[in-house]
């Protein structure tokens, strides 16, 4: 038969074992929660990055953001998260908005910095051609084209004549 002291010692040992087991289970549970939170936050970050990329791609398409700025702007917007808040005064009232929302509104309100529209060279006068190209968005002056053509013809008839002299001769 066991003495009371032995029973108490056994119960204390069993209690200590149960406490150690519980502490180990709590630590494992905490680690599992951290792992799951990390997976959730990684998925949330990926979703936010996708949303930011879609938004920035729209700005690039509209010409409000240069294509070279795309990657940096996406990374910056994704880093803002939803926690940040900006506060500022607008007239007599104070404005308090989430930073990401304010940034989106600001970027939408920006003017175009680049126009991706195609530009034509303009129409040449009938029967005229040139041996050079005008830059995109510019047209050719018909009178100056005629003078150029006459000067080139003068140069062909008078070999060794420089262009300036041919222009002077064709202008007469």
Rough shape? rod-shaped
- Low-pLDDT runs of 5+ residues are none
Structural class: mainly alpha
| Order of secondary-structure elements | HHEEHHH
Please bin the fraction of helical residues. Answer: 55-70%
User: What is the residue-mean pLDDT, rounded to a whole number?
Assistant: 83
Q: Total number of helical segments?
A: 5
Total strand segments: 2
> How large, in whole angstroms, is the Cα Rg?
39 Å
Describe the protein's architecture and organization.
This protein has two domains: 106 residues; 51 residues, no CATH class. By secondary structure, it is mainly alpha-helical. The chain has a two-stranded antiparallel ribbon. It contains five helices and two strands.
What are its keywords?
single chain, 172 residues, mainly alpha, two-stranded antiparallel ribbon, 2 strands
């Amino acid at each position: 038969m066991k003495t009371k002291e032995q029973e108490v010692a056994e119960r204390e040992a069993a209690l200590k074992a149960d406490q150690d087991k519980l502490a180990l289970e709590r630590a494992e549970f905490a680690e599992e929660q951290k792992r799951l939170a990390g997976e959730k936050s990684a998925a949330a970050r990926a979703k936010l990055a996708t949303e930011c990329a879609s938004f920035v791609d729209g700005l690039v398409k509209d010409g409000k953001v240069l294509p070279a700025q795309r990657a940096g702007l996406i990374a910056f917007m994704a880093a803002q998260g939803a926690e940040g808040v900006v506060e500022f005064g607008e007239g007599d009232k104070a404005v308090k908005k989430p930073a990401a929302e304010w940034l989106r509104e600001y970027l939408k309100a920006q003017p175009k910095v680049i126009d991706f529209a195609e530009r034509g060279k303009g129409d040449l006068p009938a029967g005229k051609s040139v041996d050079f190209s005008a830059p995109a968005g510019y047209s050719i002056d018909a009178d100056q084209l005629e003078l150029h053509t006459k000067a080139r013809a003068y140069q062909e008839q008078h070999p060794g004549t420089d262009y300036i002299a041919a222009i002077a001769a064709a202008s007469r």
